[in-house]
Design brief:
The structure is a homohexamer. Chain A is of the alpha+beta class. Chain A has a single domain (2-143), classed as Tetrahydropterin Synthase, Chain A, CATH 3.30.479.10. Chain A contains four helices and five strands, in the order βαβαβααββ. Chain A has helices at 23-30, 63-78, 97-109, 112-115, and strands at residues 2-14, 39-51, 81-82, 119-129, 132-136. In chain A, strands 3-1-2-4-5 form a five-stranded mixed β-sheet. In chain A, a hairpin with a 2-residue loop joins strand 4 (119-129) and strand 5. The longest helix of chain A has 16 residues, at 63-78. Chain A is elongated, with a radius of gyration of 17 Å. The two termini of chain A are 17 Å apart. At the A-C interface, helix 3 and strand 5 of A face strand 1 of C. Strand 5 of chain E pairs antiparallel with strand 1 (2-14) of chain F.
Chain lengths: 144, 144, 144, 144, 144, 144
């Protein structure tokens, strides 16, 4: 098995507010992330595909196709958007980095096999800032 | 002369919309940056102070004091905020990286001499993304 | 399971000397790292917590609390310190990056559950330089 | 177990061409990577060794020795070379990042035990660009 | 004056050979950079435009237009190419980073005014590797 | 004029203490940087040479020679050393980044002409941490 990764990026606004909570509780829990008028980030996304290299190409997956797939399915609906208001698959969900990474997994897991017979989605790594990031390996797997 | 620099960062939301233009013209000019529901960035800010090192300390300016000054005057009003709605000194101004850098200069230029007798503000460098950034050297100076 | 990571940093001095060895043997084994008068590094530390996101917040752990915990338990005793002389939990231990990462694990493993019911310490990643780093997953686990 | 990593780099030229295919098919599959006159990259290589720290040194492996080994066995034959024409162990193989990472594994796996009794080769991570990279853990292991 | 910069990148092969010299002299002067079978790099290019912000947009130049211009005029002829064989404006020139930066200046200096009335080309910064780079400010200007 | 830069690095320990001051005053002014038992950093050094490219090589200066010169004159006496105790040219001087950059200038300014007839030392840029750095252009020049 080889693990091939591609990094893409997008910029978005969001706020962290639980609609079942009072304004006071939201501020107590989320602090400045609950700012009513939003804030935003440059997100960096790394998508990892695991598989065997194709003997004809040496590729687990063609990186150009992988990049185009990520841009179409993930970057297009997220870039220069508001995660709370503009993104259909985030509606009604808390736009934390954790939840966003899980939703990006769902967008890609059945698409990767369409561009490679030898690989499958292995991991989503999502940086909210250079110092805060999450990794997700799907609902059935833990890292160790 | 020695040029001493300190990097700080903040996260903010904004949109680029000229209120004198139609929605169509704003979209034509600003593209996705005009998204009504905002988008955002992790901004990186580098403040440069120029001066002679103090013989007693070897410092042009104490970096801890410089960091605290930048945080109080610049990061505090900008971090986790909406540049169009929440920031008094940006009210009525286009929140482009260019204009924001000029406004940050104005916030700091008279404050730097309060923490150093030997240095003065030399430059503001502001990254909107790792690939897009501006530099400003004040209203009276050009770089060459 | 989601893996959430936070990066912090500290600066410290150290030297690598085995007190049971002659000066000659220490120099033969550790080279310039055995310099009697010390040398130092900007260390970067990445702490990873594994768990399920809380349905109310979308968080495995609150990153602000995680950052404060790391700063209190790890950065405070290490930053601007001498690893051989100033740090109680390193006394009598070889201050290699490997041993330091294991000691940082011990400092945090029982503290993480105090700030999250859903997550536990998963990994310590410690950069001594941008090109030299270690990862540790606790005494009972290997990576594969 | 501790995982110790060392980063090295090399610059090389290559092209991606399957000699069993027509020029048209190569261009259709590999695009600009099939340019007959070559292109090139600054490759970054991270080699990870897993093991227990030596009680006398605190080291899984001496990083100076690890660096010299990687330079002798991997960097020397690859740096400032053409992966298709100049590198004995790549002859007749597709010089994709995937295949190159597997070949680097083969070069190092039996060499690491010569410089450490406590560690063994754990992973090869190879960046072709900052946004495209692969990881390989040997023929018998997968990451999860 | 504000200085606005945009970073783009390209991958290319080259070799450093003076056709008026013997093979021995080329190897003596250029070392491994003279490898007959080429080597290559991931080049990073930063283009800086100097000017006053447009009062209507806050922009010195529209970054999307600047990015497209750089891609059309510079990246397209250089990316995945051989600097010695494939690039019309480098024919008969030594493909050092210095000369390449000067040629990129010539490609852009008269194009920038077509996308902004307020700015002009200020600088070309070209990284051959993260540790080797050049800056050029045009034929008539020095930096200080 | 072209400006060619080369980055090197070194690790060192230091403390900031003015021997004419009491312990209390040193702690008040320098804070944790005055720790008696030292602390340390991974320093990054960028040396810039300005000049015209040689028509035969396309080089302002040969980067291999520049790298070797920097290593011999600057890195060798600083790497894995104590800036207060081990470095002859820093004796009796405050080891701030400002002073260290000025001393590195003095080490190199008369050496650069020995490896290039076309270039001269233009700037020293010294990072103490990724967020704190200084630039120096010699005793007779300011940046603007």
């Amino acid at each position: 098995m080889i693990y091939l990764s591609r990094q893409e990026h997008f910029n978005a606004a969001h706020k962290l507010v639980n609609p079942n909570w009072s304004r006071e509780k939201n501020i107590a829990v989320f602090g400045p992330c609950a700012n009513e008028n939003w804030h935003g980030h440059n997100f960096n996304l790394i998508v990892t595909v695991a598989g065997e290299p194709d003997p004809d190409t040496g590729f687990v997956v063609d990186l150009k196709q992988l990049s185009l797939l990520i841009r179409e399915k993930v970057i297009e609906p997220l870039d220069h958007k508001n995660l709370n208001l503009d993104v259909p698959f985030m509606m009604g969900k808390m736009p934390s980095t954790e939840i966003l990474a899980q939703e990006i997994w769902k967008l890609l897991v059945s698409e990767i096999p369409k561009i490679t017979q030898l690989g499958q989605l292995h991991a989503i790594k999502l940086y909210e800032t250079p110092r805060n990031f999450v990794e997700y390996f799907g609902p059935d797997r833990s890292k160790l």
